[in-house]
Amino acid sequence: MAVTPICEGSLEAPTRHPLAWQTAAFHDPHALAAELERVFEICHGCRRCVNLCQAFPTLFDLVDAAETLEVDGVAKADYGKVVDQCYLCDLCYMTKCPYVPPHEWNLDFPHLMLRAKAVKFRQGQTRLRDRVLSRTDAVGTLAGIPVVNAVVNATRTNALGRKVIANLLGIHPDATLPAYSSRPFRTRERGRIRHAAAGQAAGPTTGRVALFTTCYGNYNEPELNADLIAVFEHSALVVTLPASEQCCGMPRMELGDLAAVKAARDANIPILKGLVDAGWDIVAVVPSCVLMFKQVLPLMFPEDDEVHAVKARIFDPFEYLLLRHRQGLLATDFKQSLGTVVYQASCHQRVQNIGQKTREVLALVPNTTVEIIERCSGHDGTYAVKQEFHDAAMKIARPVAKRVEQAAPDHFGSDCPMAGAHIAHALGRDGQQKHPLSLLRMAYGIDTHPQGASPCR
After folding, report:
1. Which UniProt keywords are listed (predicted)?
2. Contacts of 335 (CB under 8 A, 6+ apart)
């Protein structure tokens, strides 16, 4: 009888199967444990992903310390140590693993880790701290109240305050924490909501853009959204805001709270679908939010036509600008060069498979040299601020910081504002990072705070 050989690895493009999160088997702890053991055995035999996040070194250390030196010698109770280290960046799936579908071993490490987090959440084993930190809208709204805002922002830089929140919430005292604006972006730009406007279509773009402001862009760094609008309007693009929005759901997904992700979908998708139907494209400054609508929700709701309609019309900002440039509609009247720029391409942008669009746009600025770092920064939203993970996050960030240090650029940063802040922290240069959109605004010579306007903070 002929035996079909098992291929060592697949050279085909990876195929992502929908996430079967609404089935009983998905949340069955016994079925989960069996699948974790199967996948861990494959990873142990390969070890190609050892230089990515801490999930893989943690797994391999457990195996190497086992009496059998195999996965069967690792206690099932220790599997959670591996799961806790995974922050679902998807890089192992998209760039490293040779056994992803269509390979017969059908290995999807990030989706398995998400399944394990979902089981943990359903069993009530998720820490209160993690539940609180993942409620970004609620935290941002509370921190935006003027009196509370002053206290929160003072606590960020006060040694005694940091010690208190370290003890109360398990936040590492050395971690960098974002400031909160007392004037959220959607509050100060509520007059920007438009229901009808003319735009010049070009290629796959309509020239009319709805800006999903994101929790971070609304509450923490509203100036990033202001930079995006300034850059887009400089190229005659029309920008509106959704009539309402909630967190995209990424922080809750990373916690395993998939019911909350569905609730976010139910709040956001009808609004965004209405904008798409009215001829608007959608962009967001945070790559994780774009990824949520472009890849995560379509995999969670594969039969949902509204979700797929939004997926087809949401873009990374630099992806959108480059599409306009290819049609001759991107302004290139740059007033100043940027010199040397080193920026980290965030993981959640890279796994969108759109290519190096940020580098291509910044390289249009005369006398500007752009170096891209395609390596994880280690921040993962809240991962880097937690006491038990901060040291690992800094370890992951060091190679990126070293690259920046060696290049001695005029500007450095990341497509993800949180990653940029984490890299600056690793360099001991907090606050000196520049987002690529801010650099583009600088190159155009657009006044940061035009007459009559006021800073976001």
Report:
1. 4Fe-4S, Iron, Iron-sulfur, Metal-binding, Repeat
2. 443, 444, 445
Residue 175 forms part of a structural domain:
no
Domains: count for the chain: 4
3-state secondary structure of 55: helix
Rounded to two decimals, the pTM is 0.89
Answer for the pair 6, 104: CB distance below 8 angstroms, yes or no: yes
Domain that holds residue 140: 128-169
**Any idea what the CATH number is for the domain that residue 357 is in?**
3.40.50
Pseudo-torsion of CA 218, 222, 224, 226, nearest 10°? 110
Alpha helices in 178-257 (DSSP H): 185-188, 215, 222-234, 250-255
Give the closest residue to 358 by CA, choosing from 88, 368, 214. 368
Residues 341 and 380 in one domain: yes
User: Phi and psi dihedrals of 313, rounded to 5?
Assistant: -120, 10
From the CA atom positions of the chain, what is the Rg in Å? 22
Q: CA 111, 116, 117: angle at the middle one, nearest 5?
A: 95
d(CA 366, CA 337): 6
In whole angstroms, what is the distance from residue 274 CA to residue 279 CA?
9
Residue 68 in any domain: the answer is yes
List Cβ neighbours of 331 (8 Å cut-off, separation of 6 or more): 234, 235, 236, 444
- 3-class DSSP state of 430: coil
User: Residues near 204 by Cβ (< 8 Å), separated by ≥ 6?
Assistant: 323
pLDDT tens digits along 36-89: 999 999 999 998 888 888 899 999 989 999 889 999 899 999 999 999 888 888
